[in-house]
Amino acid sequence: MARLFEKTRLGTLELRNRLVMAPMCMYSCPEQDGRVKDFHVIHYGARALGGVGLVICEATAVNPEGRISPEDAGLWNDDQIEPYSRVVDAIHAGGAKAGIQLAHAGKKSRGTPHPSAPSPIPFSDDYPAPKEMKARDIDQVVHDFQKAASRAVKAGFDILEIHGAHGYLINSFLSPLTNQRHDEYGKDRMLILDQIFAAIREVIPSTTPIILRISASDWAEDGNTPESLARDLSRGVLERHGISGLHVSSGGVVMAPITPYPGYQVGMAHTMGSQLNTKIIAGGMIDCPDLAESIVHEGRADFVFLGRALLRDPNWPLRAANRLNADIDWPRQYLRGKFSP
Questions:
Q1: Contact indicator for 309, 263 with CB cutoff of 8 Å
Q2: What is residue 341's predicted lDDT score, i.e. its pLDDT?
Q3: 299: which residues sit within 8 A by CB, 6+ positions away?
Q4: How many domains are there within the chain?
Q5: Hey, is 68 helix, strand or coil?
Q6: Which of 14, 73, 172, 327 could bridge across to 60 with cysteines, CB 3.0–4.6 Å?
Q7: What residue numbers bound the domain in which 107 lies?
Q8: CA–CA gap between residue 305 and residue 161 (Å, rounded)
Q9: Is the pTM of this model over 0.90?
């Protein structure tokens, strides 16, 4: 059996394989509503039927001001729980586990004319200068993450992902390029993450895994690198709160040139994994089953995430299993279409 299709664990969860659907914004919720719709049930359910082990739903805002766009999903009120529970049911019916990414866009929010950030540094000339957050603003955001996490568990999600990547709010606190504060949040750039994890742990079952999406590199001078970020994370923030894994991406905190290629972030993920005692989810433009298999077979990561490949082909895992000669279970309704041995 190909290692990619082995059953394995992520925290307390048993997953049917090592393939993870990365969160990708669908921009398909009505403005000011934030509730997922039938589209999301079909979209995520199809990828579960297609064979991934874990489906992580798109960046879901913890408050209206934290949306990346006005059409983003949200979990800032109780009316948004039931629609997401339908998505969870569809994912489970397809045989996968359900995750959700909780997020705040910070300085990159298009959901408000007055975005906020640790320091008043705009992402680019196309974005307004954000207001610098006061301590009470940070306290409110921590509370909003806590309430959204509670709602996510009520909706039935198996695992929570905290979005600390791509230049959004948490990432802006973590990076020296965008956190130029002189208070406790500037002296300890991990502090807000520590507080968010602690707040969430207070309201969710102890068995619910939490993972962190992280930008391993800022791709800019004096910014975070995989080595520096691993060193900061190794000081206890992951262990204190029982964080089950790192979902490793890169970039987005400042405008910086990136030349992507298949697997371009895997080396960063492996560097971080070699210094931290946690499971690693790696990827970046992965479309070739042989490359995905080599990443886990060679121990460069524990899981492989797929993004655009699953937009092109919801059944990518079924095709990959055939390519790798892995005899996996198919949805019984589709057995007539299963590849011949």
A1: no
A2: 65
A3: none
A4: 1
A5: coil
A6: 73
A7: 3-337
A8: 13
A9: yes
